[in-house]
Amino acid sequence: TSDIHDSSNSIPEHWVIISSPFMGHIIPLLDLAEKVSIYHPVTFVTSASKIETLRQKVLVDRIENSEQRFH
Rg for the chain (alpha carbons), in Å? Predict the structure, then answer.
């Protein structure tokens, strides 16, 4: 049988991080997603209405340009 905690598993875990649509929640979780993405594929989910606000703060552009690790 396969142990899900076996570190020899070559398939990386895919993380989905879902944030509520408040900047005080989005920014820390986006930072977490960026750090996790070094080791695992990450999908970050938040309200579409906040994307423009994040772009204005350069956060989305910074992430989009960092090796395309986010989906």
Answer: 14
Half-sphere exposure of 46 (CA within 13 A, CB side): 21
Residue type, 14: H
Determine contact, residues 14/43, Cβ cutoff 8 Å. yes
Q: Which phi and psi angles does 18 have, rounded to 5°?
A: -110, 125
Q: What is the DSSP letter of 3?
A: -
Q: What pLDDT digit, counting tens, does each position of 24-58 carry?
A: 888 889 889 989 999 999 999 988 888 778 777 75
DSSP state of 9: -
Q: Which two tokens stand for residue 21?
A: 């649509």
pTM of the prediction? 0.61
